[in-house]
Every structure is written in C-alpha cells, then in structure tokens.
C-alpha cells in the first residue's frame, strides 16, 4: 500500500509537470528558457516528454500489474462478503459489539420474527433468518454495495494506466531501441526525410504538429522526439482554405480559427469544417486541434541602404519569410535568413494620453549570418514611429535570442523617408568630399579672420577629415577612445574640447551640404525642425558601430500569407482513460457515501417469553450509526409489542 501510494503521488507530480511545462519542444527552446545546466538536468529526467519517459511508463506498467494482482486476490472475497448475511453469529459476539441492546419480549419467536423483519425492510435493510437448535437469528444488511467502491477504484487505476500506456508512444520507444526508427535532426522538407525517420500510417497513437499556409496542403504530421523529429503520414490530406485571427486592444490574440478541407481518398466528396481553439475536428479517430499560428511565407519587397559606403546606391531585394539569400558585403559573403513577419505590432503608447496602446505597423525579423556561422538577429519596422514628437525608423538588433533588442533610431526626413540620414551617413564616409568641404569651411573661417596661413589651413583641414573618419567609424565614443590612447591625461580635457569644436563645425558643414542638395533654403540659418533632425542623426551615427550591419533593410511592400499551426492526435487510449475516470468517480462516491451497516436480532425462547439480543455494526461515522441503531431498537421493540 505504501509503495502504491508513493507511485501514485509520483505519477500525479509528473502529470503536473507535464501540464505546466510545454512538452516536445525543440531543445534549443529549452536551453534558451532554462540555461544549459538546468536543460541537461531536466533532459536527463525526461521532463520534456514526461508521458513517454521510460521511468513514467515503467511506473504505469508496475501499477497495472500490482493493482491487477490486488484486485484478483481481494475482489472475490469482497464479492462473497457482499452476498453473505452472516447468520452464524454467536450470542457472545453480539454482546461484544459497540451497539447492542438486550430485552425480553412477551410474544413468541414465530410472532416476533416477521414483525422484526418487516420493520427492518421498511428501513431499507435486506434480511434473512436462520433457525438454529435453540434460537433463531435475523441477519439484516444495507449498503453492502460499498465494497464495489473499492473494486471500482482499484479497477479505475488499472484502466487509467492502461490508457496511458496505449497513448504513451511505447511502440515508438521500442522501435527506436531496436533501431527500426531514428529521429531526423536536420531542418529539411518531409520529402527529403529518409525512410528510417518515417512512422507507419498504422501507428496506433501519436501527437504531432504541422503548419499549413493559406491555400496549402499537408498529408503528414511531425512528432518531436528529443532533439529531432519523426514524420507521421496521414491517411488523408488537410487543406487550409482560410485563417482568421482577432486581437485584444493589447495586441494579444483573442481568438483564431481555420477553415479546413479534408481530402480523403475513401470519400467521393471532401469534408469541410472550421476549427477554433478548444473546438477541434474529430475525423475517423484523428483529432485536429487549432494549436497556433505563424507566417506562411509572406513575400517581402525590400530596399537595402548601405551604411558603410560613400555611395548611396540602394539595392532592391525580393524575398519571402523562411527564405535565405547570399549577399556580398564589405565584410565578405554573408547570408540573410528571413524568419518572420508581423502585419501589425500593438505596443504601449505612454506618450499618447488618449490611447493606452498603439499600432506601430508591420515589422519583419531576419538574421545576418557571417561565413563563420555567427549571426545577429534584426527586427525592422516598416513605418516610422513617433517618439517625443519626432519620427524614427526602428531597427532592433541582438546577438542572442534571450537578450532584449537594442534599437537603432534612424530619424525620418520631412518626406517620411530615411534618405536624408543615409545620405548624411554616406557623406561622412566620402573622404574626398569631406576634404573639399573641410577646406571650404576652413578657408571661409580664415578669410573672415583675415588670416593668411596656408600651412595652418592644410593642418586644420586634415584634422577635420581625420575627426570625421573617426566619428564615422566609432561615433563620439571612438574619438574619446582615440584621445585616451594618444594624449597624456593632463591634456585630455583640453584636447577633447578642441576636437569637439572642430568636429561640430565640419559636421554642421556636411549637414548643410545635404540640406542644400535637397533644395532646402538655409540662407537664414537652419530651422528648429532640421536642427533637431541633425542632433538625432548624430546620435544614430554614434550607435551604428553597435548595430553591426553593413546595410539597413527597409520594407517597402509585402504580400502577407498566414499559416495555421495544427496539432493532430490519434489517441485510442483516451476513451480508456475516460472509462477509468468514470469508474473512479463511481468508486469514490460508493466508498464515501454508501455505508455498509449490519444488524442482527437474536431470538431465543425462554418459558413464556423470548429473549431478544439486538446488535449492529457500521463502517465510519459511528455517531450517525449510533443514532440509527437507537431508532431501529425503539422501532423493533414497538413492533414486537404491537397486538
């Protein structure tokens, strides 16, 4: 009993873990969530697939065997006890019971017996009398079905465990152990998966997932198995006609549903149905659940703006989510891996007192992977976002998926484009043009001061160019590092102030060149709006070294394709488990609410009277039975005294 309770508690705890911890996810997701150390601990315990873990199946098997043996050994005795009235009880045994009354009645035994039995039957007792040599015994009982509660409860444990074993992927585990199947770890289409990673269509139970884009079809499901997967063919094909999703004002999904068409070669006409969360389609023993949603390979039309080149020559990029493109950059050949697309992003709007949340528009994410395999993840918004009264194009970057995004804020020009900033950034890297503008600026300054120092003009011009190059490579932080590395500590502040004044002058001149190229009239000076843009542009240039990309991808247009994530299960053990829980509820009800009670009435003639001994026993709640026994005693005495 102690071992059985321990094992049941273990199964209960494991079931809680299997409910709280999402099962059968890629190992990389668990590493990100728990870290390498705890990932290995949980992996060794089999917590990522609890219901198919070896130790879990062994416990279920042991419970089935041990509980079945318990039922086999004890159920016949319980059934016999339920049917027995125990008519061979001695008077001394009756007198030793907790509830006992003894008296003498004036009527004979033949008169008392039918009256007593009638009274007991009236109170719900089944009775049986037995004649002995010197006395007659009436045995009565009710609630004997209480014993069935124990049988049903133990049988329920067996049935539930059998259902768990049926749906516990035991055949898959056995086939894997003997080498008949092997999980596939590569991210390849199902058509390229080798035969050893395919399961038979007759597989009795499984739980797999498949993502289908709108207008697409699928005839397989993928079963996650540790760090790989298996392909489960289906006897039919699922087509996704349409996918719909509704959101709360916070941007969280409110509801989503899919219009499916089942193409079954056994049917002349396809079956159409709509599924939603908690409203699956049950078809020929297969349950199709609405589990998630994803992008279905949306088409993206992009413009690539260079960030490390003096020429502002853009390139048009046509791609789709889940595609990869090889690109040539200043850092060598790299790979663009497009991961996802979102048509809208609802985020908190703390600057808008009228709205708590605001739609920031479409965004897409991609990875830029170097030839060495190192990758950075980027998240770019399509539309400029208003922040503090100004608009910026946001582009987030991070080195690790468990890190938050660091956002580059590219200021939007009056036309709502990043062109002005990118033209300014390109000009900073055009050394010839920077030298020309620096020479013009120095010449005008020296002319106003009426200085004739050609050597000094060359020196200041060269200094300006050098500072612009340092600023373009590392921002203001790059200049600070250069000063700290080359200037004695006692002169750093003085040199830094001089550098910043010179740099500000040349940067202002470069920015004025950009404005003149746009046709902006700056004869009366730069207005406040353009001045604020200039400060934002300097901040963005300073952040570019941390951005780490040789280009900025701007989303121009898109063709949104949605995909529905379906979970497909085949679980014949589910009905067995339901039967087990039904037996368990019936058994628990009978154990707690059906009380077995027995009453004996001993009738022995003595001269002209009858000696009566009445005794009773009841399971649990002795006070309640004591009250009932008192009422029975009083009623029987009255029945015996009735003429």
TrEMBL record:
This is Cytochrome c biogenesis protein ResB. It is a multi-pass membrane protein. The keyword Ubl conjugation does not apply. InterPro entries: Cyt_c_bgen_Ccs1/CcsB/ResB (IPR023494), ResB-like_domain (IPR007816). It comes from Thiohalobacter thiocyanaticus. Residues 1-629 form the ResB-like domain. One of its GO terms (cellular component) is membrane. The chain crosses the membrane at residues 46-72, 148-166, 576-594. Keywords: Cytochrome c-type biogenesis, Membrane, Transmembrane, Transmembrane helix.
